[in-house]
Amino acid sequence: MGIKSFKPTTPGIRFKTAYTFEELTKSVPEKSLLETLRKTGGRNNTGRVTSRYIGGGHRQAYRRVDFLRRDKAGIPARVVAIEYDPNRTCRIALLYYADGEKRYILAPDGLTTGLPVTSGDGAEIAVGNAMPLARLPLGTVIHNVELKAGKGGQLARAAGAMVQLVAKEGAFAHLRLPSGEIRLIRLENYATVGQVGVLEHENISLGKAGRTRWLGRRSRVRGVAKNPVDHPMGGGEGKSSGGRHPCSPWGQLAKGYKTRKKKNPSDKYILRRRK
Predict the structure, then answer these.
(1) Strands, E, within 124-206: which ranges?
(2) Residue 117 belongs to domain with CATH number
(3) Is residue 8 part of a domain?
(4) Tens digit of each residue's pLDDT (9 = 90 or more) over 83-123
């Protein structure tokens, strides 16, 4: 997987970098695993904007990715293709199972076409295989980790993400998350061996504002650039820095103000905070 730069024939292309996509083996997605994806523009069912800075973007079809892997335990599969997914930063792998079913999974680093993939208690500890945390040796790098058994993987699903199994104690595994947080996860929860692919994603430079609009992200205007009627930090003579602590348009502090619940039920599962 490589990154290419471009000859600066225009200002927008001067700092642009893009993938070479050399790892892809199939350009047309599996039709049986596609769903239509309707865009909301950040609006709820009454038409009000509830999530700002969302809108536009290229039309996309959703690929049904199997984050669970439990119901195919013990059934061998083969990696047929590595494909592009516009809905996520990593690539996806198309699996053909021995029972005839086709499914997508997240493509970890090192997974190539032709390799066998399995899940369940009897699975070998190899890249792409999914199994309970109890089966994994200490120090193993994993991704797509379940928070609740049977709900499907929720942790470490983005490009280059990885979680490390650092200890086992009682009914829990101690996992070091990408943020540095160490968290307790039950040993019966499933995880997939390996690190999510496309490690170079953090080095991609979009190059121009229009490319972010293709991704469905609208521009975000700074509060200090607005008028006082539109933002608490707006107005002032000349270029003002706000004259108060940074906040949202509705006055909620933006720096240092903790928004996490004071009595969050999951606090007891966090051994070490990320901060």
Answers:
(1) 130-132, 141-143, 145-146, 153-155, 163-169, 172-176, 182-186, 190-193
(2) 2.40.50.140
(3) yes
(4) 999 999 999 999 999 999 999 999 999 999 999 999 999 99
